[in-house]
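Hey,

Quick one before I head out. I ran the complex with adenosine-5'-triphosphate overnight. Inputs first:
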Amino acid sequence: MTSLREPIFTMTNASKAFNGITVVEGIDLQIFPNEIVGIAGENGAGKSTTLKMIAGIHPPSSGEMRLFGKEFRPSRYTHAVESGISMVFQEQALIPNMAVYENMFLSLERNFSRFAGIINRQQMIEYSRRHLAKLGLDHIDPRKRTSDFPFHDRQMIEIAKAFALAEFFDIKHPIILLDEPTAAIGEREVKVLFESVRRFRKHASFVLITHRLAEYTELCDRIYVFKDGRNVGEFIGESNSEQNLHKAMVGRIRDDEYFKEHRQLEVGNAEVALSVNGLSGATVREVSFQVRRGEILGLGGLVGCGKEEVARAIVGYDPFPVGGTVEVGGKPLPVRNRVKWAMELGVGFVPKERKTEGIVPYMSVEANVTLASLPAVSNVRGFISRRLERRLAKKHVELLSIRCSSAAQLCQFLSGGNQQKVVLSKWLARGVSVLVLDNPTRGVDVGAKEEIYGVLRDLADQGVSVLLISDDLLELIGLSNRILVMRDGSIQFERPAPAKDKPTEQELVKHMV
Ligand SMILES: Nc1ncnc2c1ncn2[C@@H]1O[C@H](COP(=O)(O)OP(=O)(O)OP(=O)(O)O)[C@@H](O)[C@H]1O
């Protein structure tokens, strides 16, 4: 639906350098009214940086931007918001211990003051409630603390916030930048989001970044492809296919053997590495299963079905449910100090929320990669050896092609997908016997996903057992030896998934709803 009308936003020959290192260069980009534009590219290609240039968070080092026909040089995010541009961030920007309505109008409270500067909270609450309802989020009480809501609800709150701000500043045609909005939400929430975007495009334009190629082809009118910080292609209409996008991004056609199914092992009666028995609690009921050596067990279900809680209970990330036991290699995992014991018994965990739970952002890549392997990088006197640390980190940075200026770079400055690779590397560096993965390829580009799938097959060959939780059904089906489907906190369905007899998506979805 590309319009012949004038673009409402243009970026011409823009570049951005951090500390003298150019990360994007020569970017030309246009946004037309009512348009949904995609920006695709590998991890670190410069997609988020470009959105941040538009949003005034990282003003361009050179180049020009024009908004509604006028030169546009936001020096802060609030300038962009006041001009009609808001961004839904890849990693959530909401403050967890504040009420939802406070988050929605953070730093704009003075606009809701009645007299003598007293803030009219009731007005803010009602305004928030109305905007949440517009997105079908009636179940979210804006007076509640933001941290009371699960990740996918918080994501939707950010989107509602973007719409609310546009109306608040009386912007006739806002531009809403969506940086991987679907990375951590399930299929049902993605549907709600996409329906909202389609509905709201009458009043707004959108820019979308996602690592699910099908979402570009489903939602976008036009897609830019970035590679190594440059804009290398543009796809419209017919040319806008997953194959074309994959080829432009990765430089080759997508492998038929994307999930490396030919490498899937037959585990037969191999020894049981992880045994979960009768796990029960607030959100899970009598969940029992076993994972054998070298097996990849997939755990699927809609958001809220309890699959994440199972993973978190196994590794002790959340208070343990009231009942049930977990054994690793035949040894019971105690409830007290479970996180420590899980590590001790060789269990690794890649959580969904990498920024808060997976990495230490203010530490370097090498420190993060080796964080769980301190004995291996310590010298005989027990001090950390920089040389050993560097050597171990280098190996894993190469193994997963983590894109960083050097292993000494702080993790917070890595692109989202590369941070995710660091989380996985942390456990590969330590060496584990059981790996619990909650959406391990969230935010990871299609080429790097393929590398991670290869690594998982290598680990299975070495006898590592994997419990894989994924909202990406094709990934779940392609990788797993066996699949369990959860609904309402309990296991509803079990299906072996040998390489030559994989279940269909429909077969699994039937048991999810
Ligand atoms: N504040 C910063 N300081 C230094 N380098 C940065 C900063 N922000 C981004 N970079 C670098 O810029 C490059 C592009 O990062 P960007 O986040 O734009 O990539 P991306 O295409 O969005 O990747 P992903 O798909 O993984 O999110 C990366 O190499 C990253 O390390």
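The chain has a mean pLDDT of 87.

Talk tomorrow,
K.
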